[in-house]
Protein 1
Amino acid sequence: MTQNNELAEFEAVFRPQINAYLHDNIPRDVNESTLAEAMSYSVDAGGKRLRPLLSLAVLTTFGQAPTEAELRAICALELLHTYSLIHDDLPAMDDDALRRGEPTNHVKFGPGMATLAGDGLLTLAFQWLSDSDVSTDKKIQLVQALTRAAGPSGMVAGQALDVENTHHRLTLPELRTLHREKTGALIHYAVEAGTILAETAPSVRDGLLAYADDFGLAFQIYDDILDVTSSPEKMGKATQKDAAEEKNTYPSLVGLAESQELLDDTVSRAKEHLIETAATFGFSPDLLLAFLSYFG
Ligand code: GRG
């Protein structure tokens, strides 16, 4: 089977499981029904489910099928990711009107309720992690890793750097730090969660995390490139908006051609980390390698 067929089959099995788990388990019986509606509005709006799929791909790579408890712990990350998107879209942040093809949470429910829906999903993520039926030792490791990735030493720090520098030009190393924290940290955690649940040896984990970090960087460079190239309509919008806000992106800092080169180098490094780790420790890199096809 080719790598890409393997990924297609994997996604066909697990994306519906993730969607169903999220849909069926988002609490709808909270006292405040508008809050419940606002939380499920964004969670049910779809999305690629990349982060939980990466965690599940690590488990699959090591021959393990997720238990219901593991699926709950893994889906917690998608709740947290969805909170970050709701807050990122708020008028006080990016002020975006569309997300996942639908009106953003604050357009539909107002900024106050959208803030609370994000707060609710962030908290619920830790509820799912801590009440999931995985071992206490693994739960502690997962909670520690997720707080590191999502909090003030990870995603929130990256977002703060972004907010603070909206009107300042960053250097390339500074932009890299911003993206490693803002976007890369949750992708790092997605792979780390898989290694915790699969109980991989520390050297395997380190090799997979090196892959994850290059994956996260590539993901952001690719997103920056797509913002400029994806469609004439989007190109006009993104360019105007980014120029008006003096946004720090790879194309705005180094141009499109060099951004593409940086993307190619980063994807190649991710491949090398994975192939080397797999060859040293004797597992198949194919499924995780196939995830890199996302970048074309
Ligand atoms: C508000 C604390 C706080 C953090 C926000 C994630 C984030 C930090 C900002 C998102 C900014 C952004 C759009 C970055 C581009 C890369 C990215 C994270 C895209 C969204 O993730 P996808 O493509 O989205 O996985 P889907 O909809 O598929 O889940």
Note: Residues 250-281 form the longest helix (32 residues).
Protein 2
Amino acid sequence: MSIDSLPPLRDVMERHQLMAKKSLGQNFLFDLNLTAKIARQAGDLKDQPVIEVGPGPGGLTRALLAQGALVTAIERDERCLPALDEIASHYPGRLTIISGDALEQDFSALAGNGSKPRIIANLPYNVGTQLLVNWLLSEPWPPFYASMTLMFQREVAERIVARPGSEAYGRLGVLAGWRSEAKIAFDVPPQAFTPPPKITSSVVHIVPRAEPLACDAASLGRVTQAAFGQRRKMLRQSIKSLGGEALLEKVGIDPTRRAETLDIEEFVALANAI
Ligand code: SAM
């Protein structure tokens, strides 16, 4: 069954001789039921703006467009542009393609004056975490986007939703927990991708909090980096360069505790005290 009358993705790949490149984190999705499921996870997309990073040959892009979205897609691999142009012609005025590196893109400039865009992407693994951190640290807050629905390696997804006390809890969990509500929506097995990666992936749905605890993002970044950089050590040692024992006592945190035992409120208190 087809969601549009465009040719099957495998044919598109063959016609444009698109061999996946590992250096660009290319693991493509050809299953249109799965791409539709990812798109649905982001909610009702009818006439809603969507930003997609790394459309590749356009599997997820086609699902977004079929559900009525207005898509702006940023792709670094120029080999994919002819295939994306074909999709754009099929959906006149609904797909804008930007050729370039998402890490250098000013995403807030892509948001128009109407509804805030949703960010939806099967992210390239090599830059996915960096992009997420950039979006979580967006200023001003509330951010330029309404939500993010993103594919990550399962291990990264677990770090995003991690709670204090767990192995996976670290800088990513504190930043995500501070500014958003994040949940793992569903897992995607390796064989769903071409070529299959070695590990399971997960789709994470992230909704920004309207009013996160007041905190300077850069200070929170510094505290979490120091604390989790030496996560086995007591905090008085790991955050010594930021004020160590005196700082911890100032905010009423036992200096012999370790980073993974601190909840988000405590990290915010520390960040506000440095
Ligand atoms: N969305 C497609 C799909 O689901 O089949 C492709 C996903 S693939 C995991 C990641 C895509 O991101 C590739 O098309 C790759 O070329 C692109 N990409 C890699 N690094 C990028 C970057 N820095 N900026 C924009 N796109 C990038």
Note: The first strand starts at residue 28 and ends at 29.
